[in-house]
């Protein structure tokens, strides 16, 4: 499997070099998981939410619970929570949709954040059948946070 991925990365790098002229991929980048992670088929239970696809995500909540995850790249507690969300999402086998709402830039996804009255990040909201179920997680404490998060996700 690893050989196929390296071969695919090499072909992609050569194609980029031919099509992009001076563009090149360092050999070390072709060997790292980060360089080919974006080439893998996207997990349909992990969605980056924007105004353009918000209604579609709400439709998805009619078949599976959706966890709206309001975060920002510069937010320390968000960065501490993310690996736990990733771990629990993988362990749950896609039983819920991880719908990430990025608030990193001024005004980014403000309409969605305003709809839910988001004042602090991280904030997780449980959505089912297009409606908030009334359950939220606000903030993240490394002490009790992982266990509290696991319990919250178990109750979706």
TrEMBL record:
InterPro entries per UniProt: Thioredoxin-like_sf (IPR036249), Thioredoxin_CS (IPR017937), Thioredoxin_domain (IPR013766)
Pfam families: Thioredoxin
Keyword annotations from UniProtKB, A to Z: Signal
Signal peptide: 1-29
The Thioredoxin domain, residue ranges: 28-156
SUPFAM superfamilies found in the cross-reference section: Thioredoxin-like
Keyword Signal: yes
Protein name per Swiss-Prot or TrEMBL: Thioredoxin family protein
Species name: Amycolatopsis dendrobii
Lineage, broadest ranks: Bacteria, Bacillati, Actinomycetota, Actinomycetes, Pseudonocardiales
